[in-house]
Amino acid sequence: MASEFELSRNITIGQYVPTDSFIHRLDPRIKLLVFTILVLAIALNTSYLGNALGLLLAIYLFWASKIPISYGLSGIKPAIPFIIILAVLQLIFQGNVFSGGTVFFEYGFILITSESIRLVIVSAVRFVEIILLSSVLTLSTSTTDLTHAIQSLLSPLKKIKFPVHEISLIITIAIRFVPTFAIEMEKMMKAQASRGADFGSGEWWRIIQRTKDMLPIIIPLFNIALSRAEDLILAMESRCYTPGNDRSSYSVYQSIGRDYIVLVIGLLISALLLFYHFPF
Amino acid sequence: MPIIEIENLSHTYMKGTPMEHKALKGTSMVVNEGECIAIIGHTGSGKSTLIQHFNGLIRPDSGKAIIDGVDLSKKRIDIKALRRKVGLVFQNPEDQIFEKLIGDDIAYGPFKLGLPLKEVRERVKWAMDMVGLDFEEMKDRQTFALSGGQKRKVALAGILALKPKILVLDEPTAGLDPRSRNELLDKIKSLNKLENLTVIFVSHNMEEVAYLADRIYVMANGTDVLTGTPEDIFTDKENLQRYEIGTPETVQALYRLKDLGYHVNTSAFTISEATGEIIKVLANGEGGNRG
């Protein structure tokens, strides 16, 4: 029986699953680049076939990285309500914007056409693809690697005085602390439940009451987050961290043959998704 | 009369994910009403997982857990009533304080029970008395301005205000200064002896265990490996070594005297008994190899 409090179970962002697969061993810079381009390409593709391809690719990548797909899918679970609400809204209100194709249903301002149905299905599938792809990336790349990759990919921006190092540090800290706070929140929910607190059992329309029920968790969580931040600052300062300094790196990345092959294949698939006109 | 019966209990965290982790592998335990039980064992031996079963935060994967007559493996049980009966104090409980004023924070639990204001007030007063906070003086103080030891007392009072039958504490004194530590231990002892609460606590501090516990459970690798009175456990040299259990300093001192050839009773682990033993040695002037 799964515990009602096992939150970290459904949080796949920021976790690292070391299975030492081919995907894990790729140069993180190339991995990040390819994944970013792939996600962009998928986001811009509006055909059924193209998105089916994207979904297959995401599933293949899970297989290749030896991470169970069920684990990736559990990361989608919390997003399902949003996907459904989005789909319903699009179905009702977007018919007039995407009015091409056959009209299936028309009543007042509600217009449902084959094009708007396409939009609904494609955006739902796209959502799943993007979550899966970004999960593969974060599950197969350690935070350190990810930071270095972000930093080195953004480094051309230094020329225009863009704070590359600071931004990549912020991103890393944000990703790194997602699972940590999930664990803290779990602990807090358990602690307050032990004092008789009750979460999510009120009627759903009593939003104010349900929000109030969350205060005993949210307030301590803010406290914990702030004190963690202070600890982090102290730890960084005591190691003489100075923002804006030129920093050398302990590990130096070197791209080898297979990294370039992956880059080329990734770019080809992205180009296909972006420019090829899929029949449907 | 047993108030907690655990039999062959197992639990796996994050089942079905790559992070799957077997925390409990068939633990058994019996706690009688009014007892004070210490659970000791190294990090990762399953102590925290076990105690979270006591108030139904975690339900048994397999095995049996009966808490005060409630069978946890049954699906439909009154979990809120169970949590009222079993007060669970987590590690660093001061994190859970969220109200601005001490009195309000302690009153959170009783209010959640739907008690009338007067009763809530009485419970808060009683709970604050129990942990040694003065009701009139402290109830309207700000929670954030308290010291670590006081915060922990407030958190403990927040649980006591539920009037539980069983009090479960996870490392209650970790991170406290010696004075707050001793105060808290005395409070726990008097709750157990005077208010007749069943107390179960996890600890790494053997002095504490020797001072409080009627019986000890030693856990290793997700199971209970040893149980007995502090006297049994602290004199069982072979198992102490096998499970790398520390002993109170009194026991260590007596063992060293014995190794030097003095005739001392190594099971005298409380401070006053150990003092007696040492005085006896000094008075007799007896000795082994040192004379």
Describe this structure in words.
The complex is a heterodimer of chains A (280) and B (291). Chain A has 280 residues and is mostly helical. Chain A contains 10 helices and 2 strands; from the N terminus they run αααααββααααα. A two-stranded antiparallel sheet of chain A has the order 1-2. Chain A starts with 21 loop residues before the first helix and ends in a 5-residue tail after the last helix. By secondary structure, chain B is α/β, with parallel strands linked by helices. Chain B has 2 domains: 246 residues, 3-Layer(aba) Sandwich (Rossmann fold), CATH 3.40.50; 44 residues, no CATH class. In chain B, strands 6-7-8-3-9-10 form a 6-stranded mixed sheet, sandwiched between helices. Chain B has a 4-stranded antiparallel sheet with strand order 2-1-4-5, covered by helices on one side. The mean pLDDT of chain B is 89. At the A-B interface, helix 4, helix 8 and helix 9 of A face helix 2, strand 6 and helix 3 of B.
Features:
heterodimer; A: 280 residues; mainly alpha; two-stranded antiparallel sheet; B: 291 residues; alpha/beta; Rossmann fold; 4-stranded antiparallel sheet
Beta percentage of chain B is 15-25%
**Average pLDDT of chain A:** 85
Q: By CATH's scheme, which homologous superfamily of the largest domain in chain B applies? A: P-loop containing nucleotide triphosphate hydrolases
**Domains counted in the coordinates of chain B: how many?**
2
Mean pLDDT rating of chain B:
89
Tell me the helix content of chain B.
40-55%
Strand order of the largest sheet of chain A: 1-2
Q: Give the number of helices of chain B.
A: 12
Describe the structure concisely for a colleague.
The complex is a heterodimer of chains A (280) and B (291). Chain A has helices at residues 22-25, 28-44, 48-64, 69-74, 80-93, 114-140, 143-154, 164-194, 207-238, 257-275; strands at residues 103-107, 110-113.
